[in-house]
Amino acid sequence: MTRASRPHGRTTVRNWKPTAALLTAGALLTLSACSSHKDPAYNTKPSAAPPAATSASASPPLSSSVSPDQAAVLAVYAHYRKEQAKAYAKASASGTDIEKYATAEALGKVTRDVLSLRTAGNAASGAPVSQDTEVTALKTDGPIPKATIKDCLDVTGWKVVNKKSRKALPSPKGQLKRHVNDVTLEKWGNRWLVRTDTAKSIACGDSGASPSAS
User: Fold this and answer.
1) Is the four-CA dihedral 49, 54, 58, 59 of positive or negative sign?
2) 124 - beta bridge partners?
3) Which of 72, 155, 156, 169 would bridge 26 by S-S if both were Cys, CB 3.0 to 4.6 A apart?
């Protein structure tokens, strides 16, 4: 079977800022994005989840109303989040399966984050917890199927620590512990992949518009 090439187009990361400054304040880019601004899986049945110690959260039970495509999208997102947490905990993407669940754009963001962590002598401890995750848009026609997920990400237990002292760095003032995350995915060949993962300065439960899969 011919393997689909990893997409390289449209890889501009609009909301990325240099992470080193954020790390000195005690936060990953992903963890502090909501306080600083407002702003291709090899198949549709990803392999077994990584060990619970690196898991962001267990995959929630799916409603009978969830379609096979929606289920595939949610499964890929769950695996992406687990592998992201594993990479941040090691301050390296090496030895993780993050590239199985991310486009070049999303993978590039994770790579920059872990490089900044490693350069600063830090790593992440714990993992984010996804709550109230739902597929808000799904477009399966056209050359590139697209999907959008709206997620409540609880980062209370996800902290930056100094690798030598193992002491947690202080969180930025005003950091939201439970914030809305907008995630977009694209399907390349038979692989759903996370394309963007955007933390919003919106507390879970507050009203906020999510982008559509267009």
Assistant:
1) negative
2) 160
3) 169
Report the CATH number that the domain containing residue 26 is assigned in CATH: 3.10.450
pLDDT digits (tens, 9 = 90+) for 3-22: 445 554 433 333 333 333 23
178 pLDDT higher than 60? yes
Which region holds residue 45: left if phi is over 0, alpha if psi is between -120 and 50, else beta?
Answer: beta
Please indicate, yes or no, if residue 116 is contained in any of the structural domains.
yes
- Does residue 27 form part of some domain? yes
**Mean pLDDT taken over the chain:** 76
pTM higher than 0.85 for the full model?
Answer: no
**Least trusted range by pLDDT, from 14-23, 53-62, 113-122, 199-208:** 14-23
In a domain, 162, yes or no: yes
Q: Distance between CA 178 and CA 159 in Å, rounded?
A: 13
Burial of 59 (0-12, 13-18, 19+ CB in 10 A): middle
Tally of structural domains, the chain: 1
CA 124 to centroid of chain Cα atoms: 14
- Encode pLDDT of 105-129 as tens digits: 999 999 999 999 999 999 999 999 9
Q: List alpha helices for the chain, DSSP H.
A: 19-24, 29-36, 68-90, 104-119
